Amino acid sequence: MTPRRPLTIPVVALTWLLSAAAPAAAQDPTPWQSDNGDGTYTNPVLFADYSDPDAVADGGEFYLTASSFNCVPGLPILHSRDLVNWQIVNHALPRLYDEAFDRPQHGNGVWAPSLRQHDGWFYIYWGDPDRGIYMVRTQDPRGDWSEPTLVKQAHGNIDPCPLWDDDGKVYMVHAFAHSRAGINSLLSVVELSPDGTQAIDKGWIVYDGHGDNPTVEGPKFYKRNGYYYIFAPAGGVAEGWQLVLRSRNVRGPYEVRRVLSQGATEVNGPHQGAWVQAPDGSDWFLHFQDAGPYGRIVHLQPLRWIDNWPVIGDDADGDGEGEPVLRHAKPVTSAVVTPHGPVASDKCDGPELGLQWQWHGNPQESWASLDARQGWLRLAATPRPAEFRNLWDTSSLLLQKFPAPEFVARCTLDGSDLREGESAGMLVMGRDYAYVAVERSAKGWQVVGRRCRHADTGREEATVAEEQLASPCVELRVVVRDGAVCEFEYLDDGGNWQTIGPAFQAREGRWIGAKVGLFCQSPTAAEQHGHADMDRFIVERLPPSDSAKTGTDSP
Question: Which stretches in the chain have pLDDT values below 70?
Answer without folding.
Answer: 1-28, 545-555
